[in-house]
């Protein structure tokens, strides 16, 4: 993890997120701390990552999500060279669905 990211403030934010009990609480909290555009951008990146893991093309992803090729490329770089956060979440979602 990026050491610049490990600040007391970020840890406090993550503690707050981990305290949320269900999706309704997530909606309430994230609507308060994010703008609509920030939240939509985060969800767009998640969808892009999901589609990249499904081996969709940049063109397909851009058409479905409206993401720019720059955004798709950044997400792809995170998937390939990041901290495996997306894959960890994808695995947990799949296990939960089974």
Automatic annotation (TrEMBL):
<dbReference type="InterPro" id="IPR010921">
    <property type="entry name" value="Trp_repressor/repl_initiator"/>
</dbReference>
<dbReference type="InterPro" id="IPR000831">
    <property type="entry name" value="Trp_repress"/>
</dbReference>
<dbReference type="GO" id="GO:0043565">
    <property type="term" value="F:sequence-specific DNA binding"/>
</dbReference>
<dbReference type="InterPro" id="IPR013368">
    <property type="entry name" value="YecD_YerC"/>
</dbReference>
<dbReference type="GO" id="GO:0003700">
    <property type="term" value="F:DNA-binding transcription factor activity"/>
</dbReference>
<dbReference type="InterPro" id="IPR038116">
    <property type="entry name" value="TrpR-like_sf"/>
</dbReference>
<dbReference type="Pfam" id="PF01371">
    <property type="entry name" value="Trp_repressor"/>
</dbReference>
<protein>
    <submittedName>
        <fullName>TrpR-related protein YerC/YecD</fullName>
    </submittedName>
</protein>
């Amino acid at each position: 993890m990026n050491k610049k990211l490990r600040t007391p403030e970020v840890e406090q934010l993550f503690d707050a997120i981990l305290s949320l009990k269900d999706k309704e609480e997530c909606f309430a909290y994230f609507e308060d701390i994010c703008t609509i555009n920030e939240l939509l951008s985060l969800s767009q990146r998640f969808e892009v990552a999901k589609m990249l893991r499904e081996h969709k093309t940049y063109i397909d992803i851009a058409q479905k999500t409206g993401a720019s090729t720059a955004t798709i490329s950044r997400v792809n770089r995170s998937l390939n060279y990041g901290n495996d956060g997306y894959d960890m979440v994808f695995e947990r979602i799949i296990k939960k669905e089974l």
